[in-house]
Fold this sequence. Notes:
The structure is a single chain. Strands 5, 6, 7, 8 and 9 form a 5-stranded antiparallel β-sheet that branches. Residues about 700-708 have low confidence and may be disordered. The chain is of the alpha+beta class. It has helices at about 1-30, 50-60, 85-95, 130-145, 155-170, 170-190, 200-220, 230-255, 265-290, 300-320, 320-330, 350-360, 365-380, 400-410, 430-440, 485-500, 510-545, 550-575, 585-615, 615-645, 650-685, 695-705, and strands at about 70-75, 110, 115-125, 150-155, 420-425, 445-450, 465, 470-475, 505-510. Belongs to the resistance-nodulation-cell division (RND) (TC 2.A.6) family. MmpL subfamily. This is MMPL family transporter.
Amino acid sequence: MAGGRGRGAATLTAVAVVLAWLVVGGIAGPYAGRLSDVATNDNAAFLPADAEATRAQDLAADFVARPTTPALVVYARSTGITGADKERAVADSTRFAQVKGVAGPLPPPIPSQDGQALQVVVPIDDAEGEQIGRVVDELRSIAGGDRDGLTVDVAGPAGLLADLIEVFSAIDGPLLLVTLVVVLIILLVVYRSPVLWVFPLLAAGMSYALASVFVYHLAKHDVIKLNGQAQGILTVLVFGAGTDYALLLIARYREELHRHERPWDAMRTAWRGAAPAIAASGATVIVSLLCLLLSSLNSNRALGPVAAIGIAATLLVMLTFLPALLVLGGRWAFWPRTPRVDLADPQAEHGLWARIARFVARRARVVWLATAVVLALLTLGLTQLGATSLGQSELFTNRTDSVAGQEVIARHYPAGTGSPATIFTLQQTAGEVARVAQGVAGVSTVRPVTQRDQTGPPNPDAPPLVVDGRVQLEATLTDPPDSDAAEQTIRDLREAVHRVPAADAVVGGFTAIDVDTSDASTRDRNVIIPVVLVVIAVILALLLRALVAPVLLIATVVLSFLATLGLCALIFTYLLDFPGVDASFPLFAFVFLVALGIDYNIFLMSRVREESARRGTRAGVLAGLTVTGGVITSAGIVLAATFSALAVLPLVVLVELGVAVAVGVLLDTIVVRSLLVPALSYDIGPAVWWPSRLSRSARDDAEVAHGR
């Protein structure tokens, strides 16, 4: 009777937990499709507050009635612009000025010196925000497509931003759908059950909904900044990490169903065994992500809390909602491979991994030395990673309208036309600053901004516009504004004008934003990476109650990270033919690969420690590898596959990150966690737990077992 009451209470508890979460899901679910409404994708808004380009933006706001972002509509005909082409450009310009959001009236079309192109500069009010995409779409609709040999493209900063917004609009739909399909297929393969896949997928969806409602409200009230990149990473991270945690809990639950008659008892034991490792894993990832708050870039600081919220929501759901679902599902959820009470040794179900464990035991030193050498050789690929950063027009995997237009501008105009560098200086030094700037290699022309520039074409005889004792100069560059050459010109230009005495010169503009963003990314990498390593070391030391094991694990994961970068450099260069990597790539790759790579080692070594307390260290290493090998490898494949889903977005930055995480996770689960770490731990023996009691109590047993 007491047993019946216990089962009834357990069932009621599970039902109450599931119903409570379904209510939460009903409230939070709609927010999963509304994150794009609160996302901001203006790169300039993510600059450090102390960057020179930021100061230039603040000064620029005083020189215009309203801040604008230029769209450049370029008409080109290889045989030369005709009279009809000019009439079409003028007529289009009149219609452009009538579009809501355009700051008219517009200056007349600018002909190229070779007579083969016309360019219309269309300033778009910055107050449009994310609606700049709508404005650019209207400009493209008015300009029409190519016709009778005349090509028409809308480029410039506004055109580029509109194309980026269009890419990120795919996150709420296609990316989420692809991620769901990928996870579903893998779960079907792993479980070979028509039922069991429902539970982790439902829990992962609940995690995403819960994370979305928090991120939405925080972004809406400007507590955090959400951009398309962070939104995309949130999607794949929640489903990937959530499925990982589910696989680990379900695997331990299945083990315990062989030992307990009642599912509630099996889940209680499984939860006690798996929850600490899952919680430690999630905490490691959360703390690592929050280290991004040390970044000087708002975009990086945004990703940290957004992704951390995703992991926190996932932990909460996977440790409450999923166990309740599994208890209600009982044994039938595993059909047709239903676990029975037989008190079997967990290792008996893992024949392949038992053989791998025996191989590691026989050749431990050879295995860890060989795998370490292979990983070290892969790091040589880092020489191919290069220091070249992606230009704005190189961000896409396809050829967008803004990219095509920029190519046309580069062929027929000084490539920096439409996106000049802006120089702000005191009125009394403006002449000297202009002279010095004109002498910088890579600068085509330098002219002051005048009052007449607001309503018509520039007049070289008009006096400069003076605001608070300052003058604004515009320096047109000879190279495309998103090129490495243009960035070097900005650096040279800044160095030159800063030397002018008492000028207080400030250089900003489109290219300057890229320069300052790149410099900030380098600074962030040098500051954040050491902090992440220290934080992870502390967490591992507390979890494993040892010092040697954490150092060993961090060393192996860092080696795996460097090997991944080396391998990815070869993939990017020779397979994908990418022009370079984004400045943020090394830092993002490190945070995700090291945090997630440590995850799998936490799952392994926490089980090894548990087994070592019963069997001795070396036997514990083999037992831990045997029982966790299959599930951790499956979890790695899930995470790699979900991050690979980023490839559906035609954005080089996210494709590179997706490839890096996928390659790194597979390398870590298959090589590092399956071979390197177990072999090294086995070879070191009980000393791996130093200075804990386990390093002393297990030593004698291990030495006796090996005939010492």
